[in-house]
Amino acid sequence: MDSSQIGTRTITQEPLLATKLFTPPLRARLVMRQQLLERLNACHECGVILLSAPAGYGKTTLLATWAQTVQCPLAWLSLDAADNDPVRFLRYLIVALQQIKTAIGRDVQRALASPQPPPPTLLINLLIN
Length: 129
What we know:
about 130 residues
């Protein structure tokens, strides 16, 4: 077994950090960003929304506020630098999506548990399908 297989196997066995999967609580003193909330609501049926801004601009607060008001299934996943690994990212993404529907990604989870997981592009295709 080469070192890349060992690293992948280690990642697929490590426990996930549950706090990354919960919407953070809102602070008592909150500045409501009504225009931004309305823009998020306008994109509600897009399927996926990407919110990008520098650190400290209130992305997490805005999304947590929106998550409390939206009337649809919602998955939350907080990412950090360690989640740049494709296998680790997929594991977290699947568990987050399973909060909406438990059957999502089970075939990908089985593939990740195999002694020699398939390439990330194949796993992503399985997840999308």
